[in-house]
Design the sequence.
């Protein structure tokens, strides 16, 4: 079988339509299933009498129903005004700031973050990260270095205060 053409996928055999009428008439004339002599449909007697009057009644009824059409124009106006208000509300909102920077964070927030989150860095690794040229000792020990904390540290770590040449009455 040949490949079918994509534009015409169906084919008829060669010479199919030649002599088609003759073959059809031969087949009909042969003895076989006979065609019915009568139609199979009957119309009741008197069906067509008065048909015009019945149709006229159905087509032209005496009373016609009047259906009021509602005007939806006011609903369209309401929907358009709500949409316009929504557009105005969303476009006229004040602009939010560009972003949050270091200046916006409080020092207590930054300290709390570092206290709550543990970093797996040794002091040597921290020293590599920090720039010592810009770091001053007062920045690091500002809140921690006062007289009470020094005396408390010495009291906890040194057994004999006389070794430090301190007067015991001083604290």
Sequence:
């Amino acid at each position: 079988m040949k490949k079918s053409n994509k534009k015409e996928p169906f084919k008829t055999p060669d010479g199919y339509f030649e002599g088609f009428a003759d073959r059809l008439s031969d087949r009909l004339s042969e003895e076989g299933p006979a065609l019915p002599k009568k139609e199979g449909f009957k119309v009741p007697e008197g069906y067509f009498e008065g048909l015009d009057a019945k149709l006229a009644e159905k087509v032209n009824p005496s009373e016609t129903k009047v259906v009021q059409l509602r005007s939806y124009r006011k609903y369209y106006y309401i929907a358009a005004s709500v949409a316009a208000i929504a557009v105005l509300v969303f476009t006229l909102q004040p602009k939010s700031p560009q972003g949050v920077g270091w200046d916006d964070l409080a020092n207590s927030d930054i300290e709390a973050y570092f206290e709550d989150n543990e970093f797996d860095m040794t002091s040597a690794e921290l020293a590599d990260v920090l720039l010592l040229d810009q770091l001053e000792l007062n920045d690091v020990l500002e809140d921690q270095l006062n007289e009470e904390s020094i005396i408390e540290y010495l009291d906890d770590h040194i057994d004999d205060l006389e070794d430090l040449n301190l007067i015991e009455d001083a604290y």
Remarks:
- Helices lie at 20-29, 51-59, 73-91, 107-116, 123-129, 137-141, 147-157.
- The radius of gyration is 53 Å.
- Residues 73-91 form the longest helix (19 residues).
- The CA atoms of residues 119 and 126 lie 10 Å apart.
